[in-house]
């Protein structure tokens, strides 16, 4: 046998052995369990920023006041994804306008939420289509509340005195 044929046969046998070994190894890997779904709660825009895939492994975004867990789509909404501008943010206006520009993503530090009242009919329809998509694809984990509302709720919670310790 010429040496070229021997090299070819040895290479072919090695290739087949390696691919079968890899396939068996991949089949034996047990998939990781799905992460536990967070409990429903209110998120302020400042709190929502933490869920951008950088600060935490979870990726959330808000549309029309509903916060969605888009972690399973983090290749789109997480860091380096094509829609990463919306990760950890209120994506309502940006999706309605089909734009990733910063001018269409509300400032997370603002006291009040964007009310979208100035959107035209086409933008409202686009937004409704995106909302329907997210409703079907991703679990809702909470609602978006204003920073002002979140601060008032925290202040109220801090000022509540348990009944057992109240003086008459």
Would you identify the regions where 5 or more consecutive residues have pLDDT less than 50? Answer: none
Using only CA atoms, what is the Rg?
25 Å
Write out the CATH superfamily name of the domain at 41-156: Cytochrome b5-like heme/steroid binding domain
Output the strand order for the largest sheet. Answer: 1-4-3-2
Secondary-structure blueprint:
Blueprint: H1 3-28, E1 41-43, H2 45-48, E2 60-63, E3 66-69, H3 74-77, H4 92-96, H5 121-137, E4 140-144, H6 147-159
Parallel strand pairs: 1-4
Antiparallel strand pairs: 2-3, 3-4
Give short descriptive properties of this protein.
4-stranded mixed sheet, alpha+beta, 168 residues, 4 strands, Flavocytochrome B2, Chain A, domain 1
Task: Report on this structure.
The protein has 168 residues and is of the alpha+beta class. It has a domain at 41-156: Flavocytochrome B2, Chain A, domain 1, CATH 3.10.120. It is 41% helix and 10% strand. It has a four-stranded mixed sheet with strand order 1-4-3-2. The longest helix has 26 residues, at 3-28. Keywords: Endoplasmic reticulum, Heme, Iron, Metal-binding. Residues 43-145 form the Cytochrome b5 heme-binding domain. Pfam families: Cyt-b5. One of its GO terms (cellular component) is membrane.
Briefly characterize the structure.
It comes from Schizosaccharomyces octosporus (strain yFS286). By secondary structure, this protein is an alpha+beta fold.
């Amino acid at each position: 046998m010429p040496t070229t044929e021997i090299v070819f046969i040895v290479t072919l046998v090695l290739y087949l052995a390696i691919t079968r070994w890899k396939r068996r190894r991949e089949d034996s890997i047990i998939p990781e369990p799905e992460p536990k779904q967070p409990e429903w709660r209110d998120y302020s825009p400042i709190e929502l920023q933490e869920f951008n895939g950088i600060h935490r492994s979870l990726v959330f975004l808000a549309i029309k006041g509903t916060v969605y867990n888009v972690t399973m789509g983090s290749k789109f909404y997480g860091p380096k994804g094509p829609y990463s501008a919306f990760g950890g943010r209120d994506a309502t206006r940006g999706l309605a306008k089909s734009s990733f520009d910063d001018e269409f993503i509300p400032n997370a530090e603002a006291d009040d939420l964007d009310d979208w009242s100035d959107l035209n009919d086409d933008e409202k329809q686009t937004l409704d289509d995106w909302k329907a998509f997210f409703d079907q694809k991703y679990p809702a984990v909470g609602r978006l509340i204003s920073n002002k509302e979140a601060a008032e709720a925290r202040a109220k919670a801090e000022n509540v005195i348990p009944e057992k310790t109240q003086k008459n």
